[in-house]
Design brief:
The structure is a homodimer. By secondary structure, chain A is mainly α. Chain A is built from 9 helices and 3 strands; from the N terminus they run αβααββαααααα. The structure holds a DNA duplex.
Chain lengths: 229, 229
DNA sequence: TAACCTAATTTTATCGACAATATGAACACA
DNA sequence: TGTGTTCATATTGTCGATAAAATTAGGTTA
C-alpha cells in the first residue's frame, strides 16, 4: 500500500491523515477497489484509530472514498461510465462558472488568469517530453488546476467553486489512473492559450467552446486507457 | 438545545446521530451560529464520544456544520448574502438537470413526476391554511423535495443529483429559519402544476422559466424575513 | 480603568481496550 | 462435488480515560 510521507506539521492528526490519504487516492497510488482497512492504514500513516477513522469519514462524505456500513471503506471503483458522467457534469458546471466570470470578472480576476497561465506555461515548457510521468507532474497538475480554477473564480458562488474543486479532484484521479502521457499527440499549451485569450476578450461563446473541446479531448484520450474496470 | 428522538433502529450510532443532527440543523431547531459542543451533544442525543464526533466530521465535510480546527463545530451562520448565493447556484444547476431530463427522460421519468406531483398536491390541499408551521409541514416538505428531485431525475448524472440534494437541504434550512408561512400570498400548487405540465410537454424553455420563477419568488419571500444575520 | 500575564477550567483531540459485526475455514451431509 | 452449518478469526464500531489545546477568571501593574 502506497503512502505519502508526513510533510509539514498539520494542525492535527485527523486533518493530516485526511490530506495524505486524499492525495494517495487522487494520485492513483491507491488502486480503485482497494480496501482501506483501518488497522493497515494506522500503521501505514503512523497515526491512531480515531484520527484515521475521522479522516475516512470525512473523505467518504465527499465521495473520495466509498463506505459500506459495517463493512469498512475502500477506494472508489473507476469505470469508463463514471468517467464519462464525471466529465459531462464538469463541462456543465464549469461552463456556468466561466460564463458568470466572463460576465462579472474584474481586473483582479484577469490578473489571476494571466498569472495562472504564466505559471502553467512555464511548467509545461520545462517538463521533459519523454518521461510522461515525471516527478514534476505534481507541480504541473497544481498549475493546471490553478489555471482552470482561476477561469471560474469570478463566478460569485463559493458553492459552485467548491463543486468544481470536487470534480477536478475526481478527474485528476482518472487522469493519473489512465497512465497516459499528457503529451500524446496534443498541444495543451496552445489549447490553454486559446482558452485564456477568448476568456480575457470576454468572448463567452468562444471561451466555452474552447473549454468543452479541451475537456472532450482529454476525455477521448483517457477512454483509450485500459486501466479502468 | 432541540433534539430529534431516536426513530427506527439505524445501522449504527454514528449514522443515526448524523441523520438526527442533520435533521435538527436543517429544520432550524438548532440555531445558526450555535456552538455544537461534543459533551452536550452526547447527552442530548444519547450516544458516545466517537459516534458523535464521526457524525460531526461527516456533516462538516458536506457543509452542513461549520468546523474550526481545534475549536469545535457549530451551526453555519445564515445570512441574506449566502441565501442569495445559494438560490442563484441552485437555479443554475437545477436548470441543467431539468434540461437534460427533458431531453433524455423516458416513460418512467414521466411517471415519477406524475406521482410526485400527485402526492405533493394531496399534501398541499390537506394542510390547514391557518397554522403555517403545522406538524404536517415535514410531510409536505418531503413531497416538495421529492417533486423537484423527480424533475431532474433523468439527467443521467448522479453527481449532479447529489449536488442538487445538497443545495435543496441548505435551502430547506433557510426556509425553516425564515418562519414564514408558505401560503403567504401565493398559490404554490398552481406554480408546481405549471412547472409539471411544461416539463411533461418537453417545453424546456417554458419549464426552465417556470422553475426559475418559482425559486425567485421563494427567494423574495424569504428575504423579507428578519431572522438572518 | 485598561492592558497584560498566569493559573484554573472547559473543551477538543487522541489513545488503548473492548464489544459487535462480518468474514472465512473446517466440517457434515446429501 | 456441491451445499449448508458452526465456530474461529479478522475487522469495524464504540466506550471511557487521558493528553493537548483553547477559554475564562483572577490578580498585578501601569
Amino acid at each position: 500500500m502506497a503512502v505519502s510521507t508526513a510533510s509539514s506539521k498539520e494542525p492535527n492528526q485527523a486533518s493530516s491523515a485526511y490530506e495524505r490519504l486524499e492525495q494517495d487516492i487522487l494520485t492513483g497510488h491507491l488502486k480503485p477497489g482497494e480496501r482501506l482497512r483501518l488497522k493497515e492504514l494506522i500503521v501505514s500513516y503512523n497515526t491512531g484509530n480515531s484520527p484515521m477513522r475521522e479522516a475516512l469519514s470525512r473523505l467518504s462524505a465527499r465521495g473520495i472514498v466509498t463506505r459500506e456500513e459495517n463493512r469498512g471503506f475502500s477506494v472508489p471503483h473507476a469505470t469508463k461510465e463514471s468517467l464519462t458522467e464525471l466529465l459531462k457534469t464538469r463541462c456543465w458546471i464549469e461552463e456556468i462558472g466561466l460564463r458568470e466570470s466572463i460576465a462579472n470578472g474584474d481586473n483582479e480576476w484577469e490578473e489571476r488568469i494571466v498569472l495562472a497561465f504564466h505559471w502553467l506555461s512555464q511548467s509545461e515548457k520545462s517538463d521533459d517530453l519523454v518521461s510522461g510521468r515525471s516527478p514534476s507532474d505534481l507541480k504541473w497538475s497544481k498549475h493546471h488546476q490553478g489555471f482552470h480554477m482561476a477561469l471560474i473564480s469570478a463566478c460569485n458562488s463559493d458553492i459552485l467553486i467548491d463543486f468544481c474543486t470536487q470534480l477536478q479532484g475526481r478527474s485528476f484521479r482518472y487522469f493519473n489512473l489512465a497512465k497516459i502521457s499528457k503529451y500524446a499527440n496534443r498541444n495543451e499549451l496552445e489549447e490553454h492559450r486559446e482558452l485564456k485569450d477568448a476568456t480575457l476578450e470576454r468572448d463567452a461563446e468562444l471561451a466555452v467552446s474552447k473549454l468543452k473541446k479541451h475537456y472532450t479531448t482529454t476525455h477521448e484520450i483517457l477512454l483509450t486507457s485500459d486501466r479502468f474496470d
